[in-house]
Amino acid sequence: MLAVTIEKHKKKEGFQGQKTVLIPKKIVSAINKKNKLNQPLFITDIGYYPKAKYHYRERPAGAEQFIFIYCLEGKGTAIIGQKKYTINAGNFIIIPAGIYHRYASDDTNPWTIYWVHFKGDMAEAIAEFANKHSGGYKGFIKYNENCIAIFNEIYSQLERGFRKANLVYANMCFWYFLSTFIFNEKLKPPGTATEKDPVDVAIEFMNKHVATSLKLQDLAQHVNVSASHFSFLFKEKTGYSPIEYFNHLKIQKACQFLLFTNLRIKEIAIELGIADHYYFSRLFHKVMGTSPNSYRKKGT
Questions:
Q1: Which of these three, 187, 206, 236, is where a domain ends?
Q2: 130-142 pLDDT per residue, tens
Q3: Of 187, 207, 237, which residue constitutes the final position of a domain?
Q4: pTM exceeds 0.85
Q5: Distances from the Cα of 284 to the Cαs of 212, 239, 244, in angstroms?
Q6: Beta strands of the chain (E only): which ranges?
Q7: What is the C-alpha to C-alpha distance for residues 19 and 13, in angstroms, rounded to an integer?
Q8: Helix (H, G, I), strand (E, B) or coil at 118
Q9: Among residues 66, 109, 73, 65, which one has the least CA distance to residue 91?
Q10: Domain at 153, CATH number
Q11: For residues 106 and 77, is the Cβ–Cβ distance under 8 A?
């Protein structure tokens, strides 16, 4: 009986206040052949469904495109492959191309969603990175007006027609739009370090103490994590050991001293908490591929 009721109320589209732009395949193909800027990542469909009661989609063989859905209000469910997700306000999902999926709005509290279908040479890599960063197909972001403003800008450009400039601009904006979800922690206001993970807290600590000499134990103690576990977490997230990353920050600061001050190499080393200026020069060359003096003369 329940199955009959669900089947009866299925509704793929047609919601009051909805917005949808579907870019014809011929236009997408023609533009991409002529303009390489679109090829890495491009939108094929985009839309907004407010309070989309009975909204339902099932694709046994998956879709040709990758699908991004952001739930602004209400709730729904999604099944991707063999896993089921509950989608609440603030959740977003990125569904890979070619994988079974089904999603539906809640009957009693229907979702309001922003959605985009996208393809491109980089689409798979971006989707995989986003899903790895979120720990699955589902992520969460607190309401942020900036994200909605970017979506509306993309939509308004595509709504004006499919000339090359509109499509290129919209697709370049889409890179940024996705990044605001993948790296949503970067949108937090300053002073919220306690909400961040140990790696982010440690990096802030490094930046504040770039003129000192920090050891692995100092960093681990600051975030209340054992040295071995902290080292593992840090390399897992950044690709570098904590001390290697700290040295990179020192060299980044050294570049500013070289370009914008008349400090001697020895003086710059001291400013960065490095007593041996010969060691500093070797470290600089290792990171930047050139000596401090050559870098200063080049002025880049």
A1: 187
A2: 888 888 899 998 8
A3: 187
A4: no
A5: 17, 19, 12
A6: 19-22, 42-49, 56-59, 66-73, 75-80, 83-88, 91-95, 101-105, 112-119, 138-140
A7: 11
A8: strand
A9: 73
A10: 2.60.120.280
A11: yes
- On whether both 182 and 197 belong to a single domain, the answer is no
> Domain containing 142: what range?
2-187
Interval 21-59: pLDDT, tens: 988 888 877 777 767 777 899 999 999 999 999 999 999
The total of structural domains in the chain comes to 2
CA distances from residue 134 to 30, 124, 130, 131 in whole angstroms, order as listed: 34, 15, 6, 5
What 3-state DSSP class applies to 49?
strand
Instruction: For residue 275, give the CATH number of its domain.
Output: 1.10.10.60
Interatomic CA distance for residues 90 and 105, integer angstroms? 14
**Residue 137 CB coordination number (10 Å):** 20
Task: List beta partners, residue 45.
Answer: 22, 117
Q: Are residues 207 and 170 in the same domain?
A: no
| Letter string b/e over residues 215-237, b meaning 16 or more CB atoms within 10 A of that residue's CB | ebebbbebbebeeeebbebbeee
Instruction: For residues 259 and 168, state if they share a domain.
Output: no
Q: Say whether both 169 and 207 belong to one domain.
A: no
Which residues on adjacent β-strands are paired with residue 110?
Answer: 75
